[in-house]
Design brief:
Layout (H helix, E strand, L loop, with lengths): L7 H37 L2 E7 L6 E12 L2 E4 L5 E6 L6 E2 L4 E5 L2 H50 L5 H48 L1 E3 L4 E6 L6 E2 L6 E4 L4 E8 L11 E6 L2 E13 L9 E8 L11 E9 L6 E3 L4 E3 L2 E8 L2 E6 L1 E6 L2 E6 L6 E3 L10 E6 L2
Parallel strand pairs: 1-23
Antiparallel strand pairs: 1-22, 2-11, 2-15, 3-10, 4-6, 4-9, 5-8, 6-7, 8-10, 11-14, 12-13, 12-15, 13-14, 16-21, 17-18, 18-19, 18-22, 20-21
Length: 399
């Protein structure tokens, strides 16, 4: 039986269905070809990429830390005695010399006490003369009684006098000895009294001298807390003076940098008041104590020159050019990328690009220290255009 020819409408539908299938097949084949080509290009065909070979070495580290402007010789001027301020001879920002008068206290009472003490010392000196005269008188009587005792002793041997007369002579001699000893003690007592009076004079002279407050060093007055007429108590803050040559920046660094920072290393300082200007200096000394809460230690940095607008307590940022204490691993900063805030680098491993997180340390010029995540011989790739499992052939080493 012959097949019946399809109606014209059915023929058209069948032809359309057949053409659509061919088109889908063609598109699928093209997609497979393109996808295969892309896969070949992206995951099979290796491409040259600049790389940096990791080699441990001694690095010049830039260790940063906050600091405050301070001074080694910073003196709080106080009074050792109580009194009313009569005058203040200097003001803030004045330069002073050692021994220069800074302030004076009312001293009328001290002057009167000193005059009385000097008079008492003069009287005590005259008392010594009186005691010495009394001793001379007693000594004369002692010599007379002594001669009389010797004469009566000689007469007693020949029975020329009675024993009672000899006894009386001996008693008179012992009395004369006691009087002489008392006279000599009176001289010593008068001399001791004179020394006491003279010491009291010196004490009052010292207190009178303390009524005049002088500068203990050459420096600049950075603060003044009192005015004339104020009652100044012992130990109360009158003013502060700093020695310009001892002004330093007291910087704080993490304790991990303790072995890297050495005395004499150069430092760069930027003050918060003028961050655009750079000041230079050197490490003067390191603290031997680490803060138990912040785990930081301090380093004093001397300045080659002072800012014109310096002020005690001024904030600064300090960068010390230190040397790593041992071989360290570092890579150029441009090779470090971040994912979700974590730093990392692209490595060439078995011909593929792999991203690896790292822990960073201190900056070293254009390089940065890597404390964890890299080992000697690793090849770090330039990060531009990198993607996971990219086939790469490490090319020129980035130095």
């Amino acid at each position: 039986m012959k097949p019946q020819p399809l109606p014209p409408v059915a023929k058209a539908a069948h032809a359309h269905h057949t053409n659509a299938g061919w088109r889908r097949f063609t598109i699928l084949m093209l997609a497979l070809i393109v996808g295969g080509g892309a896969a070949f290009y992206w995951y099979i065909l290796p491409r040259k990429a600049e790389a940096y070979e990791v080699r441990p070495r001694l690095m010049s580290l830039e260790i940063n830390g906050p600091g405050l402007l301070d001074a080694i010789n910073r003196v709080v001027i106080t009074s050792r005695i109580q009194g009313f301020l009569k005058a203040i001879e200097v003001d803030r920002n004045d330069q002073v010399r050692k021994g220069q008068v800074l302030a004076r206290l009312e001293s009328v009472d001290l002057l009167n006490q000193l005059a009385a003490a000097e008079a008492e010392a003069t009287a005590a000196a005259r008392g010594i003369g009186e005691a010495e005269s009394d001793r001379a008188r007693v000594l004369a009587g002692y010599e007379k009684v002594k001669i009389e005792l010797e004469r009566r002793t000689t007469l007693a041997r020949t029975n020329a006098i009675s024993p009672a007369e000899l006894t009386t002579a001996e008693a008179n001699f012992r009395q004369a000895e006691a009087d002489l000893a008392r006279a000599e003690a009176g001289i010593d007592r008068a001399k001791a009294q004179l020394l006491a009076k003279q010491a009291n004079v010196k004490v009052l002279e010292a207190r009178l001298g303390e009524a005049t407050i002088s500068a203990p060093l050459d420096g600049v007055v950075i603060s003044r807390e009192r005015n004339p007429g104020d009652l100044l108590l012992p130990g109360a803050n009158l003013m502060q003076v700093v020695e310009l040559s001892t002004i330093i920046v007291s910087a704080r660094f993490d304790e991990s940098a303790r072995a890297s920072i050495k005395v004499g290393q150069p430092a760069r300082i930027r003050f918060a008041a003028d961050p655009s200007r750079l000041w230079t200096g050197r490490v003067l000394r390191l603290s031997r104590q680490v803060d138990q809460e912040t785990r930081e230690f301090t380093a004093d940095i001397t300045l080659d020159a002072l800012p014109e607008s310096w002020a005690m307590g001024q904030r600064a940022n300090v960068a010390v050019e230190a040397q790593s204490p041992a071989l360290a691993i570092g890579v150029p900063e441009i090779l470090v990328t971040r994912r979700d805030g974590r730093p990392g680098v692209w490595l060439a491993e078995h011909g593929r690009a792999v991203w690896r997180p790292v822990a960073l340390g201190y900056v070293s010029g254009n390089n940065i220290e890597v404390t964890r995540g890299l080992t000697a011989g690793d090849l770090v790739l330039a990060p531009a255009g990198r993607y996971p499992f990219e086939p790469v052939t490490p090319g020129i080493r980035v130095q």
